[in-house]
Design brief:
It is a single chain. With 338 residues, the protein is of the alpha+beta class. The chain is built from 13 helices and eleven strands. The strands form three sheets. It has a seven-stranded mixed sheet with strand order 2-3-4-10-5-6-7, sandwiched between helices. Strands 1-11 form a two-stranded antiparallel sheet. A two-stranded antiparallel sheet has the order 8-9. It is globular, with a radius of gyration of 20 Å.
Length: 338
């Protein structure tokens, strides 16, 4: 008997919306969240696909999030945009601000979007890829909860603090990466726990500050940054750019705000976009060729570009018309409809 269940692509959105509305999210938020989940599940990103419905439901049940908040976009004469999510999930706020961010970037060459007062659970690559689809390069960052110990430390001070970047390519999938500055994403540890698997060495500490490979001990203790002091420094950078720079919480404050509840973290997000047309010295063809030479050299020697497997999964799932998730998760999701 297979431990995977097939779900038709159209049913991914439909199931997501039905569950989200059933627990209290309004139509607009449910659609925005469902679109993100669909995008991630289509690319076989199991940790940020339908699995994240469990966190969305828990966040609503914790009672702090607004499922009907109407984000407020604040424009300015500068290249900086602000959108107040008003205690809602981040995705609707980003959707509302995205057209203006593209407009400002193309007008000024560079523009930034600060998203404030939002709950956040999602991958970042779908957002930066929306910008690369418009011909822009983009980077996005968020803090989270203080689950991650700094290099040399024993307790959580930093968030998982992901960074995503996307670079547009003509008639090709963009160059995109999206990774946590922790050695493992929080969602990956949760999936290891659900699967009864041990973690690799060097990614987590238990509550006493000792190394552990037990997923539950890691969830109760602290995660570790990738690359020791280098990953730790990058994580601190994310804290600053997506926290104090935009007048929002650092991961320590987000953890305090949660007061032990298990839902999505509450904090801010920053997205910075660049228009190559303003930077490339009027030589778009030559500079695109430089970028493509780099990508070709990487692939020719047998290496892969980040997201290459994700794009392959997207093409495969679009062709066959369905995705696969663990049957246990499928059953858990349907139980939420009762």
């Amino acid at each position: 008997m297979s431990n995977l269940t097939q779900i038709a692509l159209d049913d991914v959105r439909a199931l997501s919306i039905k569950i989200l509305k059933n627990v209290g999210y309004g139509d607009d938020h449910a659609r925005a969240i469902a679109e993100m989940l669909y995008t991630c599940q289509l690319d076989d990103c199991q940790s940020h696909g339908l699995f994240r419905l469990l966190m969305c439901v828990q966040t609503m049940r914790d009672g702090k999030i607004s499922g009907h908040a109407k984000p407020a976009l604040k424009d300015s004469d500068t290249a900086v945009l602000h959108v107040d999510a008003r205690d809602g999930m981040s995705l609707l706020a980003v959707d509302i601000a995205m057209p203006k961010l593209i407009e400002k970037t193309k007008a000024n060459g560079i523009a930034a979007l600060a998203v404030n007062k939002c709950f956040h659970f999602s991958a970042l690559w779908p957002e930066v890829e929306r910008l690369s689809a418009a011909g822009l390069a983009a980077i996005a960052m968020v803090p989270s909860h203080s689950w991650v110990a700094p290099a040399g430390g024993k307790r959580g001070s930093l968030g998982t603090n992901p960074i995503a970047f996307s670079w547009p390519r003509h008639d090709k999938n963009p160059f995109t990466f999206d990774f946590a500055t922790s050695g493992f994403a929080r969602g990956e540890i949760e999936l290891y726990k659900r699967a009864g698997k041990q973690l690799p060495d060097g990614v987590a500490l238990d509550k006493q500050g000792n190394p552990t490979t037990d997923p539950q001990a890691a969830l109760d203790g602290a995660m570790l940054p990738f690359g020791s002091y280098k990953g730790s420094a990058l994580s601190i950078m994310v804290e600053l750019l997506a926290g104090p720079l935009i007048d929002d919480m650092i991961s320590l404050e987000s953890m305090e705000y949660a007061a032990g509840q298990a839902g999505a973290p509450y904090h801010g997000q920053i997205i910075i976009a660049f228009d190559p047309a303003h930077f490339n010295g009027g030589k778009p063809v030559e500079n695109n060729e430089r970028a493509e030479r780099l990508f070709a050299d990487i692939i020719e020697q047998g290496a892969r570009l980040p997201s290459q497997r994700r794009f392959e999964a997207r093409a495969r799932n679009l062709e066959r018309g369905f995705v696969e998730i663990p049957t246990v998760l499928y059953d858990d999701l349907h139980a939420l409809l009762n």
